[in-house]
Amino acid sequence: MRYLMMSKASDTAPDEKLYVEMAKFVEELTAAGALLATGGLEPGGVRITSSGDTITMTDGPFAEAKEAVVGFALIEVRSKEEAIELARRFRRIVGDGESIMQQVFGP
């Protein structure tokens, strides 16, 4: 089962301890084969909408800064419970804030 875990922006600035703990966590998940991809996201982006034959592009940002997704991790695990435990561990490392986790369907 694959899950996309997304993190929203936080008011807390990262410190050296966070970088060290996150590096250990990422290394552990990579060694276990659970981490497929991870990265940060630009705050703006482009919204693409379609209506009939019309396709419209609009430059972002679109949400309040605290609502924007700023990072992601794509993981592959055996169960939803395992994904939830990894999300809990991530939140313990990064501290206060909000993440969203959704199962990814398809091959």
Topology:
Blueprint: E1 2-8, H1 16-31, E2 35-40, E3 46-51, E4 54-59, E5 69-76, H2 80-94, E6 99-104
Antiparallel strand pairs: 1-5, 1-6, 2-5, 3-4
Question: Brief description of this entry?
Answer:
This is YCII-related domain-containing protein. The chain contains two helices and six strands, in the order βαββββαβ.
Give a verbal description of the structure.
- It contains two helices and six strands.
- The strands form two sheets. Strands 2-5-1-6 form a four-stranded antiparallel β-sheet. Strands 3-4 form a two-stranded antiparallel ribbon.
- It is globular and about 45 Å long.
- The chain is α+β, with helices and mostly antiparallel strands and 107 residues long.
- The chain has a single domain (2-104), classed as Dimeric alpha+beta barrel (Alpha-Beta Plaits), CATH 3.30.70.
- Strand 3 and strand 4 form a beta hairpin.
